[in-house]
Amino acid sequence: MKQTTEAVVEIADRAMEAAEDAMQKCRAAAGKLLGQAICAIMEQEIMLQLRERRMADAHYANARNGYKRKTLTSNFGSIQTRVPQDRSSDYEPILIGKYRKDVRDIEGAIFRLYAGGKAARLTAAKAWLSVTTRRGGADSIARAPGSSSGHST
Q1: Angle, vertex CA 142, rays to CA 151 and CA 46, nearest 5
Q2: What does residue 67 show for φ and ψ, rounded to 5 degrees?
Q3: CA 35/CA 111 separation, integer angstroms
Q4: For residue 84, which phi and psi values (nearest 5 degrees)?
Q5: Calpha distance 22→62 (Å, rounded)
Q6: Spatial separation of the C-alpha atoms in residues 133 and 137, rounded to whole Å
Q7: Helices then strands (H, E): number in the chain?
Q8: Which of 34, 1, 16 is nearest to 113 (CA)?
Q9: Is residue 40 within 8 Å of 110, Cβ to Cβ?
């Protein structure tokens, strides 16, 4: 009887270790996906900002100039992302402000956008960019529809 109990406990311990390992791998994968999604959104932001400035000023000659790394804090731990840069340093990130590091309040909204498909992302991106550029606040995105921050628009 004692051997049977020890065997059951051993099997349960192994199952718990395997489950914990799987959860850690899922969290790491979700964090990596979140970092990639943020980078893709910010890539669109910089392209839209450059295009708008060129349309407003025919002599505006700024251009893309690579990326810089940024470490963000999320519910999945620290995540790495790349922030697009421009030559004149005119780019003002809307989704993640220049000095913002914590994305826990908007990560749910980002995942919902990607789960909704391309049409949902395009519609939401246009609406959010319109709202945030009028308000001028980097944290306006957290107040957008579908965010889990609890703020109202």
Answers
A1: 155
A2: -140, 160
A3: 11
A4: -65, 145
A5: 46
A6: 7
A7: 3, 2
A8: 34
A9: no
Distance CA 44, CA 49 (A): 9
Place of tokens 């804090």: 73
Percent of the chain with pLDDT over 90: 33
pTM exceeds 0.70, yes or no: no
CA atoms within 13 A on the CB side of 35: 19
Q: Cα dist. 133→64, 91, 126 in Å? A: 20, 12, 11
Query: And the tokens for 3?
Result: 């051997």
3-class DSSP state for residue 147?
coil
Which one-letter DSSP state was computed for residue 81? E
- Lookup result for tokens 């963000």: 72
Q: Count other Cβ atoms within 10 Å, centred on residue 126.
A: 11
Which tens digit of pLDDT belongs to each residue from 107-145? 888 888 777 777 776 776 666 666 555 544 444 444 444
